Amino acid sequence: MFNNEQIKINSQYIALNSDQAVSLMIQHLRDSSTVHIAWNNQHYLFIPSDLNSWLDKDGIIRDALAHWSPSPTVNYEDRRFSRGDWVSELPEDLCRPIVFVNNSDQIAGFLSPFTLLKQVAAQKRIAESYLSTLLDTVTDAVTAVDRKGTVICWNEAAVNVYDIPFERIMGRTIGEHFDPESLMLLRSIDEGRIIRNMYHKSREGTHVLINASPVTDTNGHIIGGLATEQDITHLVKLNEELTSVQASILDNLPRKDDPFSHIDGQSNSISKVVRIGKKVAESDTPVILYGESGVGKEQLAKVIHLASSRAEEPFLSINCSAVPVGLLESELFGFEGGTFSGNSHHEPGKLELAAGGTLLLNEIDKLPMDVQDKLYHALKNQSFRRYGGHTEIPLNTRIIGATKHNLEELASSQHFSSELYYTLSIVSISVPPLRDRIEDISILSKMYLREFAVQYQKPIAVLTPEVLLAFSKYEWPGNIAELRAVLERSVILGEGDQIKLEHLPDSFQDHFATINEGDQGLPGNIYYENRLKARVTEAEEKAVIEEALQKASGNKSITAKLLGISRGTLYNKMKKHNLE
Predict the structure, then answer these.
(1) What pTM does this model have?
(2) CATH (residue range 516-580)
(3) pLDDT by residue (tens digit) across 17-67?
(4) What residues form DSSP beta bridges with 107?
(5) Residue boundaries of the structural domains of the chain
């Protein structure tokens, strides 16, 4: 397990040829030397204690070797050497020194069985020290049992999660403290199946995310099992607490006077954004907001505006990627008569309309270079001209730029005006993606569920532990915007006051079916799976599948997981029973 050092072999020996005299062998053994002889593609090693067996011999060495068996040989360059597999292949009645050779069958040294035993024991103690430290370091509960379910490993985290001290569980069967029928670890051993990321409620009041694997010996035989459990009880309780208040009460709670209270979350990353945003709001300096699509850059820009001295004035925005390139200049700066229609009509741009307030330039990296240059000079001179005009108009608008790209890199590669970049980037704020603020998902979900409950005249919905866990494991490529859309869909299509896995979009469910391939981590799956296995007639099989389909609201992915079969197998069985 831990190859911190190699076996230390003894390289002090005398090499003799098989055609040399026996007397030379006797002389070296009397001098307490170890002698090695390579003969007939075999290795022979003799130690001083072999002297008496040579005293009655004479002639040349190879004639005497016929009375000796070759020494056991190990190739130290073989990959198995570093793993230690070769030790188990040594003869049980080993009493002679072991010769170590390289890939060319050249001797490198030797070890006596006793010395080897001491070194193996020492390395075992070292490995145990590493393992003990590892078990004390990890924050997940770690449990290991033998084939009979006897607990042979129980770390400090397991003590804390289950409040069962070492002395009460070590050496005892795990079924004495837990219901054997619900233990995923025993199931992993019995079925020889690897379990990954499965939600599990092993005891009342304890919610965990479990990974379990059977432990096999070198012959592939299962000798026990090992499980790690991540305690997610606090996540489940937090979700329950946040959703326990009725929608009508929540809707009547006033917002704080602080506009930044509209940015929901308590993670360190979003707290940092709020902290910087509050400082920025106190000034009129331009700001650049960085972040992926859907993270809430526009919301942050509006909050900064509302917290500033410009709060009573307009807040306008332009999505630079949504406006045709040829119209961006007039959209931003306005236009004078005759520019488009040939008459004297003129139209103010967003810079002018937002006078005294704030203008958000979303996806600012999409601005054409000539418009970037004009904006830079407008900021520099604090005035601008409409497109086609000649009159200088004072600039009294705060500019906030937003982008998902690195403007510094774009400026360095001359894809963005370096002058405009340095003018705008006095202060920049990076808005974190949702996957980096997982702890905020429950808070955000509560907010949106309350909003949609009021909007669609429904009771406030509660996320089940499975959904909350699924949300925490999802990458959220669409960030907060995707979370909001998923929850709105679930509220519209859901029934009752719970959001379950089957209420989520098919693409969302397929994602979890892929990452949890082979898992049956849904509540009730053991019940359906055992019933399917226990059926004795085709009619009973059909009834079980129909019941599971109803439980999963017709969703094939969920149904397959409930039944413990693949979707392909489910489709075949449905076709057989005319359930399509």
Answers:
(1) 0.51
(2) 1.10.10
(3) 999 999 999 999 999 999 999 998 999 999 999 899 888 888 999 888 888
(4) 101
(5) 14-120, 138-231, 233-256+434-495, 268-431, 516-580
